[in-house]
Amino acid sequence: MNATGTTNYLWSRHFAAALAGAGLAHVVISPGARSTPLTLAFLRQAGVCCHVLVDERSAAFFALGLAKATELPVALVCTSGSAPAHWLPAVIEADAGRVPLLLLSTDRPAELHGWGANQTVAQAGLFTGFVRAAHALSTPEEGFLPRQVHTLAARLLAECRWPCPGPVHVNLPFREPLLPPAAKLAASPDLGPVHPPEAPPPLVLPAPHAVAQAAARLSGRPGLILAGALPPGSAGPDYARAVAALARALDCPVLAEPLSGLRHGTAGLEADSRPDSHHFLAHGEALVRDAAFVAAQAPAWILRCGDAQVSRSLQTWLSQCLDQGTELLLLEGEGRWPDPERGTTLLLRGDTAATLAALAQAVAAKAPPAWMQAWRAAEQRAGDLARAALDAAGDDLWEGAVVADLLAALPAESRLFWGNSMAVRDGDSFSGLSAKPLEEHGNRGCSGIDGQLSTALGLAAAGSAEGRYSAALLGDLAAHHDLNALAAARELDCLLVVVNNGGGGIFEYLPARALPEYETGWLTPVPLVLAHGAAAYGVPYRRAASRAEFQAAIAEAVATGGPWLVEAVVERSESVARHRAYWQAVSGSES
């Protein structure tokens, strides 16, 4: 019996040490009995930062945020039974968003399955369809070969990262006793050298003839680049520099979405590669609402890199362009085919930044000068209208002002999480461009409302360790859905802004708004007193009902440091009216 506990712990120590040696830096642990050997091994493993969160669902989204920020796999550990099932929403998001997570669920041994043993469920296939690989291991046996454990660890992290980043599931059964007696545990021998094999991902490039073919389609013709969200590790200075180089070579606009990493300056870039330079545009969503402008500026081609557009207006416009013969060139580096319109003319497989750089070298001619001039003029007009909408509101607080003031208050190099539903859409409309470096994230893989506070706090945990500030903007229903995430906020430098517009404000702009059951079935306002929720977890709180109050609250939060929850109270009917007035103006109906 003692040999079983010793074997469990020794195997776990080798596994944890090999994962650390292969590059694992963060583990998020939810306490439990069956996971004891693995939890203890991680807690005692040098070089691994352990985060302990009781709620498995919050823990999984927290790990998602850590992985987004660090651009490396993050491990999750939990006990057996229903515990790993709570990971599923975050696993679905990690799959769709290409975020590397290592899911380490511990389990009862095989002889207990199927006999009614407590806390025993079929865990091995729990995430089928959402993971890059799944491994159902046997219980550790005495005399195991350490090198095999080390190689397994390296393989698991490699599967998380390539060819398509995402979650990998490992089911780890342990027999009792889970640990050796205390005396043997204290006298555990040194493991000796732990050298897992190295498995760096390759740099994949399109074939030269494919680059030449794409460059020929782009050269000398009017077109534009649609830049959406990329998986962790794909955006950054090399990507921004490559996009800027191609835009200069073609003299074409770049319609940059908030999650593209191309709106707010990246440190170290040359002036003409920064997002506030000539070719980067932030109001694409507004520009395509103007029917006269769209009719006059029909692109011959559109080059899309990253995920599909946040804006429904851009999605509709892209589909209309394809119907009218516009060629769609799609850049994709993870083996998927992200083309909901099914209109691709040419698919280029390869690393996004390297492919863009290759295209910039191969392009032979620019678009006619009038093409870029027209887009720049329209961008200037849309920006002026956005600023006019903010000025017209005065001290009234609405989402456009929340976005503008939050961005102005954040220190350079901050990480910002855009919540789903209206938050990211208002970010698209009103965040503009700036030279101040910011790193922007969101959970747009499957765009769920769950786990948004937890993801933001995972980003903040990485940021605090690096001396970087973090913030999040989300809605009241998202906060209600994930309020217990505030348990992880302690000692983190993060500003959590919750826009309270009395429920699901996004449905004000959707067909459900016309139904008599609208408030009951869609708006669903909740009697949530955020002040009490913040107090329950010891998080400082401020409530703002005017723009002056909001500016003061976020300035206090940034200056003081630590975690803060700021509630921005918005009058929904006035907000809807301001949104509609802005859209009417940019559509050309109020010229």
UniProtKB/TrEMBL annotation:
Cofactor note: Binds 1 thiamine pyrophosphate per subunit.
CDD domains recorded: TPP_PYR_MenD
Keyword Transferase in annotation: yes
The keyword Signal appears for this protein: no
Record keywords: Magnesium, Manganese, Menaquinone biosynthesis, Metal-binding, Thiamine pyrophosphate, Transferase
Short name of any one Pfam family annotated for the protein: TPP_enzyme_N
Pathway(s): Quinol/quinone metabolism; 1,4-dihydroxy-2-naphthoate biosynthesis; 1,4-dihydroxy-2-naphthoate from chorismate: step 2/7; Quinol/quinone metabolism; menaquinone biosynthesis
Catalyzed reaction equations: isochorismate + 2-oxoglutarate + H(+) = 5-enolpyruvoyl-6-hydroxy-2-succinyl-cyclohex-3-ene-1-carboxylate + CO2
InterPro entries given in the database record: DHS-like_NAD/FAD-binding_dom, MenaQ_synth_MenD, THDP-binding, Thiamin_PyroP_enz_TPP-bd_dom, TPP_enzyme_TPP-bd
Cofactor requirements of the protein: Mg(2+); Mn(2+); thiamine diphosphate
Domain Thiamine pyrophosphate enzyme N-terminal TPP-binding positions: 13-123
EC numbers for this chain: 2.2.1.9
Domain Thiamine pyrophosphate enzyme TPP-binding stretches: 441-567
Taxonomy, superkingdom: Bacteria
Enzyme's top EC category: transferase
HAMAP family: MenD
Role according to the record: Catalyzes the thiamine diphosphate-dependent decarboxylation of 2-oxoglutarate and the subsequent addition of the resulting succinic semialdehyde-thiamine pyrophosphate anion to isochorismate to yield 2-succinyl-5-enolpyruvyl-6-hydroxy-3-cyclohexene-1-carboxylate (SEPHCHC).
UniProt subunit comment: Homodimer.
Record-stated family: Belongs to the TPP enzyme family. MenD subfamily.
Protein name: 2-succinyl-5-enolpyruvyl-6-hydroxy-3-cyclohexene-1-carboxylate synthase
Organism, as annotated: Azospira oryzae
